[in-house]
Every structure is written in C-alpha cells, then in structure tokens.
Amino acid sequence: MTGPGPIAEAAVATPERARGWMGRLLGAARYAFGAPAATGHRERRVSGIVQGVVTGLAARGVGVAVSLVSVPLAIRYLGAERYGVWALIGSLLAWAQLADFGIGNGLTNALTTALGQDRIDQARRHISTAFAVFGGIALLLGAATAAAWPWLHWSSIVGVHSRLGRAETGPAIAVAIGLFLAGFPLSVIGRVYAASQEGRLSNYWGLGGRIAALVGLFVVTRTSGGLVAVVISGFGIGLVTNVVSGIWLFRHHRPQLAPRLSLIHAGSARGLVRIGGQFFLIQIMALLVFETDNFVIAHFLGAAAVPPYSLTYSLFGYTGIIQSLLFSYMWVGFADAIARRDGAWVRRAFLANLAFSVLFTVVAVIPLVFVAKPFIAIWAGPSVVPPMHLVYWIAGWSLINAYCSPIACLLAAASRLRWQMIYAAMATAVNLAISISLVRSWGASGVIAGTVISYLIFVCIPTSVDVTFLIKGLRHAS
User: Fold this and answer.
1) How far apart are the first and last CA of the chain?
2) Which of 2, 64, 76, 181 has the greatest CB tally within 10 Å of its CB?
3) pLDDT tens readout for residues 260-319
4) All structural domains of the chain with their residue ranges
C-alpha cells in the first residue's frame, strides 16, 4: 500500500502548523502581558523589563487615543477660554510633581535593594516612611497654598476675562490642588510596583484610570458642572484609581509590604531625603539646560524664532521614545542585579541597552533628517520650517542623548550621583555661556550647539569613565 500522498499530508500538517503558530502567539502574549512564569532572578528581570516596555507602549497608545477623543469633548463643553484654564491646570500640576524633591527616585533604589536582598522588613520600613514623608510634604504644601491663597488672583494670573471663566477658575484650581495633594503620598504605590519588577501592573492600573477618566468626562459634558466638574472627572477619578490600586496591592497582592505607622523610621527618612536630594538637584539642572533654550532664543532673536526650534526639537524627541520607556525598567533591573551582586548580568544588560539605544536612534534619525523640513512645512506651515543646520545639530543631540541615557540609567541605579551632580553643574554653566555667545551669530543653532558641546565634554566623557569603573567593580565584587 502507498502512503497518504502530498495533498493528504498537507491537509494534516496545515492545522498542526496553525496550532503551532497560535501557541507561539499565545505564549508571546502571555510573556508580554501576563505574570512572569520565570523563577530565576535573571529571568524575572528580563521579563519585567519586556513586560514593562510592552505594556508601557500600550498605555501610551491608549493615552493618545483618549486624548484624541477627550480634547474635542472638553473644548466643545468648556469653550476656548475655559479649556485653556484646564490645560494650564495640567501644566501647573505637572510642575508640582517636582515637590517630591527626588525622594521617589531614592525610594525606588532603596526598595529595589531591600527586595533584592530579600529584606522584606527593610522594604516595609521604607514604604511606611515614604508614605509619612510624602504626607508631610503634602500637608506643608497645602498649608503654604492656603496661606498664600488670598493674594492669588487666579483669573488675572491666567488671563481669564469672561464672567463665567472668572467665577470658575479659582474654585477649579483649588479643587485640582486639593486632589493633587490628597494623592501625593499615593505615588509610593507606583514605586512599589516598579521595585517589585511589576511595572506592567502599574501600567494596567494607569490604563484603567485613563479610560475611566474619559468615561467621566463624557458624563460630565452631559451636565452643567462646568470647569470644576471637568477637574473632578480628570484628577478625582485618577485619585480613586490610585486608592483602589493601593488597597489591592497591600491587602491582596503584596500584604507583606503593607505600611504601618509603627514602622516609620527616622533613619530611613534621612536616607531617602539624602539620596532623593541628589536626584532632585540633577533634575533641576537638567531643567535649566533644556527649558532655558526657548527663553534664550526669544530674548536674542525674538519670539518668532522659537517655533522652528521647538517643533524640530519635539519631532526628533520621538526618536527616544523607546529608550525613555526602557529607562525606568532597566533602572530597576540594574538595581536588583547590583543588590544581588550579579555583575555579569549588569555588564551584558548595559552593553545590550547601549547598543540598542544608539542603533535604534541612528536608524530613526537618518531618515528624519531628510524629511524633517518638508514634514514641518506640511504639519505647521512654511513659516516655521527650520534651517538645515538646525536640523543637523538637533539630530546630533538625539544621538548624544541616546548614548548618555543608558549610562545615566546604570549610574542612577547604583546611586552614583555625587559626581553626576558636579558634571551636570558644569554642563549647565558652560551650556548657557556657549548658547548666549553663539545665538547672535549662529541663530537658534547656536543654542543647541551649546548643549551638544557642553554635554560631550562634561557629561559623555566623564560618565563613560565612571560607568567603566563601576562595571569593573561590580564584576570583581561578584
């Protein structure tokens, strides 16, 4: 007898291949979105990074979609003037996040180290202390705001002229600040997810909060609540989401980490404030470098020279979106590996992160150099198209940032911050000096040239040396 023949074999093989592909797809989905099945420390680190990045991209995608839907809803409901106030409230509270004075970053390192060393008691002490510290900061900020409130004429500050807008602006800002301060201590929850290498869970809660806020906005636009109701639907639903997330985390998911008043520790507070203060100073100097460019250009060249620079800078900023997502998850992975004295993993992961960051940015930047000018002309109009030399300088800065970001990530995870503060201070001073001296002759290109030159000399070179010695020391210790 003869065998089943090629047609019959293909008929049998096709569903088997389909099941194989389906199984692989389901396995990949479980690896990217589900609880990690790996039990080894290295496998957990890698799965935590992958899941954090994948779910982070999904969260950003949902955030963009929610924004596309919510912006027209809010504008139609509030009108241009009151919507402008709503946007300004968001910017105000974004700056208010700096009020943690870098303590959140210090908490991430302290928690990851404690969990990496299986010191649950120490981790719980850090969590309890952080809640108390953030609660104290919130109370101080609330008292300062209440004391200054009678002298703050918000409608004049934000330029509101309509009677309805003037009536709603003060109460809306008061409600927004109150909700922000109430939720300020809850930022600890996200740090616990991160230090536990479960960033995907934080992203899931964030997704739920964004969708719930959109539903709340839709409901509000069917009422007469006005700007105050919009504020409550946005920030209030976010606060409720964080509260529910915290209850689930500390009662069901990780009850062994639940905070207690009796565990608040002065030594832990001093450590968090000390490390956090160093992070805070680095953040401030970074803001001085990046947020003064537009002011220098406007002062010396006029406000009309700002849009070509800011639009080009924003466009090239998208080349670093993957690295920005990787940063926080690699940070925790590095901190965990350092706590476990796994120097070999640190070296391999650092080199892989550095290579990926640089290569991805090169691949993204090269075509963008050629399409930036025509794209901006279509996107924003021919009056704000940048000169080609500005495009080149900003492309160069994107590559420098791609190189420096993985280095800064590892140094931050190792709490090697003292010399970074010195490097950042020198880069800030030199950047401003070069920018001001070149902006008259080079135009806006002189401003970004100052950033490129100062970072190459005072950040890229010395931190490269620092990270080399750090990796050698970790390998020797392990």
Assistant:
1) 65
2) 181
3) 988 888 888 888 888 888 888 877 877 776 667 777 887 788 767 777 888 888 888 888
4) 57-274, 292-478
